Amino acid sequence: MQPFEYSRVDTIEQASALLQQAQGRARILAGGTDLLVALRERRMTTDLVIDVKSISELTALHYDAETGLHIGAATPCWRIYGDPQVSTLFPGLVDAVRQIGGVQIHGRASLGGNLCNASPAADSIPALIVHGTQAEIGGPAERRMVPVEQFCTGPGRTVLKPEELLVALHLPPPPVHSSGAYVRFTPRNEMDISVVGVAAWVQLDDAGSHFVSGRVALAAVAPTPLPVPEVESCLAGQQVSDGTFVKAAVVAQEAARPITDMRGTADYRREIVGVLVRRALEMAVERARRGAK
Amino acid sequence: MIGTQIRKHVVTATVNGNQVDFLCEPRQSLLEVLRDVLGLTGAKEGCNNGNCGACNVLLDGVLVNSCLVLAVEVDGCRVDTVEGLAQGSTLHPLQQKFLEHAALQCGICTPGFLMAAKALLDRNPDPTEAEVRYWLAGNLCRCTGYDKIVRAVLDAADAGEASSVA
Asked: Which burial class, exposed, middle or buried, applies to B147 when counting CB atoms under 10 A from its CB (0-12, 13-18, 19+)?
């Protein structure tokens, strides 16, 4: 690996000051499962690595019924799916977090890193989007909040300015009769990158027979993780039925903008989007009916 | 900055129960330091990019790929490697079961599998076969076809259950 300096910081202000001084020649280190590979393969160079895992806010994980779930940006995957409350309240997010590599990766890789890496195929980002997650960004100026669906601007690109870092992810408390799911297609069951990924979130009425609302977001079918807002109007007020699922699937297929690459052709991906949207919605509905939020 | 001298860091960690101090450059991985500085060559360099699991160690009890951890990051941490499994000449039950089931051929992946299996049994002493297979998905073996490894881990779990009952 190329030589670089290393600094462990305790506050967001320190991290931001170092980022400013380095003028683009510094990288934030959380779990390192993407960063260290990129540095070793020389896809990226840096003069300074700033380790943010000692900033308590960045590794905090807590739920409050009023304010929702706070996930510090550097919190590793295993702590997220290992938290019983998070698993109960946000099963769709947990589906996605469990699929980011194997257990060795879960021990280090963070949700914030998955977001900042901004891969079009990132598993956690569609799940964060359908949960209405806000990304909290820190820097020299005041904190700012950006909806996760606006965070990624292209493959590997985000709204973060050079002197800013992601601090936390905020998921609103789930309403009654709501739940989520994330499903993906990969040739191998584990340790693989998605050909297509689909996150769904639904809220049902008291009887569990009609959608109050619903959201879908897609992975690996556009330059950035893709919310499909058209699905919301297609589900709201409609009966939970195969016909509704099919309509939502068609709308999502029309919104997808897949490319052909070594993982699959554009046509194949579009076909899979339809299948997975139905499966993700069915799973989310089943969970919402069971009372798992 | 590149080309200039990079400052080395002093790192203090507890490795297999012993406190050790070492000097390292920030760019050195934990794997590199374990093998080349501390002489602990049990963890292997397979892919060096987080895919194969041959370098698995426990960091504060959590399974990690030591190729994806910087050695400077482990200051103040506890590191457990395959060298710490056996007690003197008595093998760890997992090591014993790997031998009994012939769950290895060339042996390169074995330290990683042992540490991954230990991490599994530490948190889930009675896993199902599916749980074992999913847990070990991040460890690659090109010799055995995995089946003997899975049998060995399940057998070690059964033996552990039996001994804890007794």
From this structure: exposed
Q: Which residues in A105-114 are b (16+ Cβ under 10 Å) and which e?
A: bbbbbbbbbb
Q: Give the gap in angstroms from C-alpha A184 to the nearest C-alpha of chain B.
A: 16
**CA distance to partner chain B, nearest, from residue A35 (Å):** 9
Distance separating alpha carbons of residues B66 and B36, to the nearest angstrom? 13
Backbone angles phi, psi at A166, to 5 degrees: -75, 130
In the three-class reduction of DSSP (H, G, I as helix; E, B as strand; rest coil), residue A258 is classed as coil
Report the residue from B49, B62, B134 with minimal CB separation from A40: B49
Q: Pairing relation of β-strands A134-138 and A144-147?
A: antiparallel
Whether residue A190 and residue B1 make contact (CB cut-off 8 A), yes or no, is: no
Closest to A80 measured CA to CA, from A118, A105, A110 = A110
- Cβ atoms of A62 and A139 closer than 8 Å: no
Query: How many C-beta neighbours within 10 Å does residue A66 have?
Result: 5
DSSP string, A184-226: EE-SSSSS---SEEEEEEEEE-TTSSBEEEEEEEEESSSSS-E
Q: Do A40 and B63 touch (CB under 8 A)?
A: no
Spatial contact of B24 and B71, defined as CB atoms under 8 Å apart: yes
Averages of pLDDT over each 10 residues, chain A, 293 residues: 95 97 96 96 96 97 97 98 96 95 96 96 96 96 96 96 97 97 86 89 97 96 95 96 97 95 92 97 97 58
Instruction: Give the Cα separation of A245 and A235 in Å (integer).
Output: 8
Contacts with A22 from chain B: Cβ below 8 Å: none
